[in-house]
Amino acid sequence: MRIDAPDEEDRVRELKWRCAAWGAVGACVIVSGCAPTPAAGTSHRIEQSRVVENSRIDFGSRATHAERFGLRGSSNALPPVDDAPAQQFKWTTPKGWTELAPATMRVANFKPAGDERAECYVTMLAGDAGGLTANINRWRGQLSLGPLSAAAIEALPRATLFGSQATLVEWQGKWQGMSGAEARDDWALTGLLLIEPAGSLFVKMTGPSATVAAEREAFLAFAASFGSGAQPTHTSESAASGFEFVTPATWRRAPDRASRALSFWAGDGEAVECYVTVLSGEAGGELANVNRWRGQLGLAPIAQTDLDQLDSITLCGRPAKIVDIDGASGSMIGVTCMNSTRSVFIKMTGPGELVRAQRSALLTFAASLQEAQ
Amino acid sequence: MSTILRRLCAVAIALIATATIHASPLQHEHREQPWTPEILESFGSLPIQDGGRIKPLSTYAGFTLLRVSGKRSVVSASGEKLDPVAWLLDVVFFPEAAIDTPTFLVTDSDAIVAIGLSTDGKRKRDRWTYAELQPGMPRLFALAHEYESIEPKLRSSQQQQIVDLASNVFSFMRLARFLDFARGGDTKDGGALALIPPANTDPSVTDWATPGDLIARVGPKQGLAEADSAVISGFITLVEKRTDPGAFAAALASLRDRLVARATARGEYEHIQLERAYYAFDPIQWSLAAFIAAFLTVAVSWLRPKSRFLWLSNVTLTSIATVLLAIAITLRCIIRGRPPVSTLYETVLFVTATGVLIAVFIEWVQRSRVAIGTAAALGMIGLFVANGYETLDKQDTMPSLVAVLDTNFWLATHVTAITIGYSAGMLAAGLASFYLIGKLFGWKRNDPAARRSLARTVYGVLCFAVIFSTVGTILGGIWANESWGRFWGWDPKENGALLIVISQLVILHARRGGFLRDHGTCAAAAFGGTIVAFSWWGVNLLGVGLHSYGFTSGIHTSLWTYYGVQWSIVALGGIAWLRERAAAKKVPAATVELAQQCEKKMRAAA
Amino acid sequence: MVRKIARGVLTVASSLATCCVLLVLLGLLTWLGTLEQTRTGLFEVQRKYFESFILFHDFGRFSIPLPGANLVMCLLAVNLAVGGFVRIRKSWATAGVIVTHVGIAMLLMSALVKHNWSSDGHVTLYEGQSADHFESYFRWELAVIEQLDGGRVREHLVPHERIEEAQRIPVSLNAADIPFTVQIESVSKNCRPERAQSTSAHGPVVIDGVKLVPREVDARAEANIAGACVSIFDEQTGTRRRALLWGAEAQPFTFVAAGKAWAVSLRKERYAMPFAIQLARFNKTEHPGTNMPRSFESEVQVASGSSSRDVKISMNEPLRDGGLVLYQASWGPSNARPGDRLFSTFAVVRNPADQWPLAACLVIAAGLLFHFVRKLTRYVKLEMRAA
Q: Predicted ipTM?
């Protein structure tokens, strides 16, 4: 407000020059911006370089892309070896279905043919998961349908799943989803429930009614193909007499299963399960197996360097890694011992607190485990 | 948090499967008389380690009962009203009777239907007994387990209720089974109450033990240490003597003395009595009562504006209330060893206290009876909010702090400054609202000087606010730079603080530039109150689903009510302004005269 | 005429009205940006609202152009400089205000310096490990690495901007001491490798039975893993190699050219530190009986040249050395039990304006207090007289 006149003149002159200069800059920018760029791309010199000591790069490795990116297995046509369920279960993926990575709670996960929104997955839960009626009505709730009477449930048809006769449900309704947030009309659910006191298996396909109807046969074929993926030839023999060991005081033998050399319940009840699995060969490698387990508990994979940090103990006369995994849905402690001919895994799973309480018992057991001569 | 809960659910499922609360060898002995005051005192003053700090068992019982039943007392099946300590005594010592006390608050009976129970004879919002819920528990825990995996923000109200109910039932179960070891039952889960301080005074041993922990420590070769075994047998005696009030009281007192002696030796009993006194005296409720009384006198004084008696009693009551509030805040500082504000609950107390103090100061300066009235209203509303928050949150209001907050320097500087900023902003909004409404209803129609003085006060409070908001916000940035290496990250809480600063700066600059005069300043300040509320509460709710219930929806409703009220006041202020303009057109001479008068007064003042 | 215009410009630039409009705009942007964060991530919002010169905000169906916070703050700086201390009346009455304005200007300056001349990243160390560089959170670089003798390598580095450019058009890169040309054919901001048989017409390039499948760009910038398809053209032999590079690859792509071993790698930008830091121990404590963290603390050794010293870095207590600040940011593994080997992550910031805000804050506080106390005494006098 109180600017002296000569001063102001100077300022104005300066301002004029500035305006002109900025104008010119602006024009240049606009012109350069409009200039056509060569379609072949641009070319630059690399200006920055530096010398680094103690590089850990292995220049001699002729690693393939798949190895560099941590993809295992031989080809996409077969389920990859490191895929979670591949060790536990096997199945035939129907034509047109896309196999997705197993997610938390989902041991197998697919996108059926036909519609992007359709999905199909297999869930396995310990125990009877609340029973058949509760689960059926829970599913009906997701489709905005009322509960079924006991008689109606009794009358539901059956289909093959995991070599047993499972309850088959096929309904249509207004989809509410798990959280009620994804309402969709004209939706269908086709599912199989196999409920046993020891464990329950669910296969569930949801999607637009037309898609679900079209994929019904594929669904049933898939369910029929779904079975245990273990190789009984190697393990059945040892399951009977393959090992010598000391059973910890609080453990009980659990019924033998096809895929397991030995099964235990650790502590009271059946909340914590511990079992020994033997596989021929490297079974996909240590890292892949550990990451598969982490995946089952909803955790991100770790790197080989992380694996190398883990403690080890002696298992069957060979060094073995102790893997502790605390996931959202429970905890797992694994002891893995691999070589090129034979891999031994001990795995204990259950609720976090209970599993941790059994950790020392597990390590004692592992130390006592010997392959019978 | 949710992971822990999910694990708890898994444990709970196992618990239900293995045993029920009935499985006690001393079945169905009922308590004959109410708990004596002596027993309540001994039990309530036991120290317990919970949530990372040592507190009186009475505090623990209060918040646990609040969480489970939504209030701080329950009525037993026999019609006896139980305070938290009595309730806890019942649950621990007479679980087979406590399972018939309607304790579990279910706000919407749909949750009961979902777990497969009949709601016959119960209201939609009602309290349920453990025994009534028991048949639905497997389903309750299965569902809770499932819903836990849904992110809390995405859960429906019913899902959240199921999760909360499961968590409450689980807490109850652990309390009821707390003394199972003494009843000859399972010893493994004696885990609910960490009542036993370490026997040594080594500060590196920080964890207190439950009786179950002590028993679990017993190896096959060595037994319990003598001191520990005395504690364990103390608990066993309590269980044996539970039906004999005299013997029970004696055994409880002796156990209490033993435990208190241990805690005292470790220097961990220092503030327990003080905290007992704080909750027993409850200065906040008394302060609230005084504020309400003060507000009532204000209301009466509207009818008799000239009464000096009313003004005096108003000033006295407000001062008493302020002093009580100050005592409450000071006691909390001593108990926690922290500066006055470190949790959201404490911001409410502190904002109220500083706001009222500023208003009292203004009243002392100008004696207009407006500021003191606003002080009473502000104090009353503030303490209602504090109580409401405590009831909705249901968590100990003196919690331990996470690592990044564990710094008294930044809590004392940044947090205190920003909270004073909130407080001044709210007070300015309150005074400005009075100005706008007053104008609409013709307050001091013939005394423009009084109106001007009020507007000037609003401006003054805003100036005060801007100092603390600005400095507080920048200090927040500096703190962030000290802990994370970035001064400003545009995160919602930071933006909220910035919004307050900007809104206040706009008002000050616009007033300076003459774009806002008295009326405009007041309207802007009244609107500014909603910006403070947005920054203080609103940003915490961003991104939270609308179908939530309880805590979030409670805050949501209050917040939007406040927004609505303030915006209506601003709108009413707009009407008043338009009316004034219209009147000015009709009688221009009067306006000119008024303006001249004002100018004269201003000159005289300057 | 010119004088008149200039005076007009000056008046507008320095006016309180401009100031108010700009402040309201800044407030509006802050508010919109805050709400927008509930839909998109912080990083995107920051770019769109706060680091931009212009933006289009979607109000329902309408897109409304708004000036970005960057522009608003530049204009505010001008307004502040011209109106707040050049043209403001200078007297005791305005002294406090002027001082406050100086403080605000200091704050804006430190923001400018931080924005243009700082770098940040992190370094993660297991107990016992050491490092002399830190890594960016989200800036990528392409390293062309030449094997030298004795475990040494020479890295030729292509900065983030070139990789961004390659998202639009292929970028060819060469240097005098590199016997081949590297062309970045395509870049994906976020992708994952998958096995594949052969390249389909529209799908991503398949090399060696593997393709990089693009994914939706994650709102959290640090969660994206970039990938690139590069071709390496050796002019002497006329051979062309193609390779996929992926940000999380276990090993770089290696090959031999002109008798030397080479590697190409896509990785986060690395910055050298003027010292080496070794993690001796990481300590964490919880509040007793809970999982609530009470404190995190890393005991580290800082070595530069031949000297080394022991330092503790904890929450709220960073290490300041050699123009860098190291903060305790994170730790793991999360499921570690007592006795396990832990790692600690430090956020590293190089910011020339690190401590400026503190000075600015003191200046502002002083200015405001001076001004307010003057006003308050006047107000009290006035009101007391009136009462």
A: 0.84
